[in-house]
User: Fold these one by one.
Assistant:
Number 1:
Amino acid sequence: MTKPILEMQHISKRFGTTQALADVSLTLYPGEIHALLGENGAGKSTLIKIMTGIHRPDEGEILLDGRSTLITNPLDAQANGIAAIHQEPMIFPDLNVAENIFVGHRNRGGVVRWRQMYRDAAEILARLDIKLDVRSSARGLTLAAQQAVEIAKAISLDTRVLIMDEPTASLSAHEVEQLFKLTRRLKEKGVSILFISHRMEEVFSISDRVTVLRDGRFVSTHPAAEVTAESAIRDMVGRHMDDFFAKSATVRGDLLLSVRNFSKENVFHDINFDVHAGEVVGFAGLVGSRRTDVALALFGIETADSGTITLDSQTVAIRSPQQAVKLGIAYVTEDRRQLGLTMPMSITTNISLPMLRRYTNRYGLVQRKEEKKTAESFRERLNIRAASLEQTAGTLSGGNQQKVVLSKWLNTQPRLLILDEPTRGIDVGAKAEVHHIIDELAQQGMGIIMISSDLPEVLAMSDRIVVMREGRQMAILDRREATQERVMTAAMGQTA
Amino acid sequence: MNTVRRAIRPEQIRELILVLIIFGAILFFGSQIENYYQPRTFTRIASSLAILAVVAVGQTMVVLMRNIDLSVGSIVGFTAYFVGRAVVANNEMSPAVVVLLAIVMGAGLGLVNGLVIAYGRVPAIITTLGTLAIYRSILVQFSDAQTIITSALPEWLVNLPQVDAFVVGEVEVKLIVLVAIVIVLIFQLVVAYLPWGRRLYAIGSNPDAAAMTGLPVRRMTISAYTLCGALSGLAGFLFLARFGTITVVAAQGLELQVVAAVVVGGVNTFGGSGTMLGALLGAVLIATLEQSLLRWRVVSEFWRDALLGLLILLAVATDSVVLARLRLLWARGEIEQL
């Protein structure tokens, strides 16, 4: 057997309290296409970032051609022949194809030798059998062509290890075929390719070996011929469920929200589901499943093209967040640092912000005492740990920040609460607290939509689970029938 | 340290330092310029301050939202000139009507700024740079190169800058200064206690989060610019009263002084922090420097703008270096107490 190009050995990486990778090993041989599978948060991205020098491992070793190598920054990775292309190509739209190919090159002298650059670019494209004019502007290129340019760029840098991170997610079937042709050509030239995709059929059609990660740990590596969709999914899921708090059984209340034929062109298509009072409806899916877009459309930040929203048996068109708040809808964003909180403002003022009018006296002035009372009551109710309520939101821990965002939206007294990744990036203790809060709210009759990439969380907390994949609704599973395997099978587009 | 932390905030330290700098400047010019400590000096500073402070209040609201209004100088000149023309044409106009006319005129120009920024999606700095030129050009076009002269104005208007609101011992407090201070106080109340003001800070701190929270960002942008325009209109009236003689270049370059006052006063150019009191102190410093440098022969008048520019750069640089450190220190204190 040939010698491996790249060996990742016993790699561990920790971010704060989260163990992103624990003792993961991966070997890449020249001329192989190696698929990397795993749920969201399994550690794929972290592993890639370590390979490309964006992060450094806490433990473990990277061997290149059998020699231990330190990759401390992206330039190092480039110098060692490691390159990555992503779902969204990193292209400079105002430069032409040739300029894009050579944009990362150094030591080509102080002056651009245009003629030589065009000649070299044309030669690389010819070698890869890519039919593109080197002088055409990158702006007009299709996504597939842009990716081809990225691959040409990687090749021009003598790349030996090419990481393709969900390159097919936004491509049409025909474009995927073109990309795969190109990928196979690279393979013949001895390039080693690490291929990441959530589409099972693609993984099996192109890869030679398949490695599965789960919870930051290595699970298995098998030749692709020995792997089936079922066996891969079994490896990907199967996380421990025991330490999870489960939602208590609640009486299903009146129909609160009914969404029918909800569509937005090129984003999501024909979404249908109901939420009753006292119910938690989970939204499961992988990256790019467009669950957040559905939520944003329900909250009036994005607008759907067609379909109906019925709230309390009234058909409504939601055009702005202001209107959504008035209708009793609240949306807790997945990006609490950027979008959920105003960091330089205090806990109190963050909580009262959407509902300031409630705190004005007859002269229209905000009564700080009343605001404080509200903040105080939420501090007790949600157990927000802070030195004082005047403390700025930016100085709180992730879990406490999340509780402040929750307080802010609960203070609007919503009937329908949309939670987007409510426990992402917060520690285990705070996570359990958030689960208890969700349970309590449901018991009080609130309707809750919970988007979560944490499968055990979705299973434990939801009465029903809507599974989405690439903007389409794949399944609605009842609490009793839902298992990790069934949800993941639907999320990956397999028929069970 | 913790008691110090609890008693004052970093922003207050900044304001304290500003007060010291103002006194330092007065002592310095007193030692350099003959007969500096005279009522006339302070009357001049005061009437310059009144105009500057009123516009600075408007500018502060805009800057708090992470925007800027460069057209204030043109709005002041525009209203000073056209209100002047109206008064010249009809000397019997009641003072209240004159003031109202100035405010409405300014508000209209501010509204245009706000609408373009909110709906045209043109960045604030470009929009107001454009209207800076446009408003000024309209003024030049419709003035027929005529100048408003003091003798054509009614007596009450010409004498306005000399009117004392009250006298405490030797100190005469001019009516127009009192007006400026009252406006500062009113708008400090507005930004600190009205929901409108709170939203201003929230949008300036994090526009994306504000939109996600359902705050009416567009409406806020339009209202802030309209208010800024209205205050600039009022300042235009004060300008007319102070100088009497108004040409088409009236208040040209005032935006530099106003932005300097606001920035030196500690209003963060990235929005979300700053107070009206700070802006007032900034205006005091700028007015003092401007009037004193006029009489200090060491510095030629051409260098005065350069000095203002230097002050802006210094203020922003100290803000991002020193104040950021202080804030971090304070924030750490909060964390340690947990």
Number 2:
Amino acid sequence: MASIDTSASATPHPVIHPVWVRLTHWINAFAMLVMIGSGWEIYNASPLFGFTFPGSITLGGWLAGALLWHFAAMWLLAVNGIVYVALGLATGRFHSKLLPIRPGEVIADTKAALAFKLAHDDLSKYNAVQRLLYAGIIVVAVVIVLSGLSIWKPVQLQWLTALFGGYDAARYVHFFCMAAIVGFLVVHVLLALIVPKSLRAMITGR
Amino acid sequence: MPRIRTIIPGVDQKLLIKDAARMLPDPTRRLLLRGGLSLGALAVLGGCDIVDSDAAEGVLRKISKFNDRVQALLFNPNTLAPEYPESRITRPFPFNGYYAEDEAPEVDGKTYKLEVGGMIDNKEPWTLDKLYALPQVSQITRHVCVEGWSAIGSWQGVRLSEFLKRIGADTRAKYVWFQCAEGYSNTIDMATALHPQTQLSFKFDNQILPRKYGFPMKCRMPTKLGFKNPKYITAIYVQNNDAGGYWENQGYNWFSGL
């Protein structure tokens, strides 16, 4: 578990995250925070449930400001997301890192993780829970973008809106995808703090 | 989050609290937002030091203009908004305005005259009788508010494209500008003005438009967000300059297409 590595020459660690992964990861992190913060402010203008998000944790100050942020950050999110997915597929990274996902392994690794017995010696290999969550969050990201488009353009993209069960249903889908992403984010950040070398790997690549 | 929270466009603070509160249709929600504003946004706006808020707002507004162009490209003049059966009409259909229902403008139908101007041949004002004699169409479509909620309503009136033809409008002009009795105004693109579902509505649910829904006339555009659908219209101008609009000037997206 040696985590301090000041020698640049001795035994170089293999690159775990190539530069395109790190770059798109951090751009995505920024875009996501803007989308979530402004999305909460937009939600507050017409809440779906009996609560609103406190103004102190939303972005934009009022509805118009939040909409400006949301529809600006969407470009960053979309372009970055397309680059990430295209490279993930083209380089074979998705295939080699995220597959296979076998239910038996997921259950076994979940038990091990909850007992704090899951090994993190080799950061280049994801365990079954990681594979499931990382693959799952990519699917959620695709769905949140599509549901967002169907709320934004329920006339021009009405076939897409209909696919989600109509305008009102698409708003709920968009909300629940946000909730899933926020849930993922909490666990993801928590685990990165528990295993700091994973955070280092996402910054330096090694 | 706190770092990000301070990157907020520098909107005029007095306008901000007044108008944001007004955007909301019912008083309970209005209070919620006012509370949120005073706690969050205004406190932060006051102490904004990490990022120049004017610069941030400038960039955001530029992107919003870019989004106008993207939406104009996405707009297909032949794509119709979905229509619904009568059973789907939202009852009661909500009243929306930046004022309370009893503060809505009261227009006298007997003396009312619609002013028309700009790049048109016949600038003679229109009385209600003359307007009511125009060929009418009907639609049951979804009104989508910028706040996120939506409601299905039923409107009857003349196609705006038909009306523009009658006044000899030069439809090569870029914009149509609406002025309303309460001082509200907005500008729309010609492509939307000529869309087959863009309607000068005289009736809601086959009854003469009541005061709360915009008597004597609303311009119904199911291809745009609710606030782009002006009510209590007193003047229509065909022109090449973008005269902006009540909400648009405060930062809401200009095109606001659906």
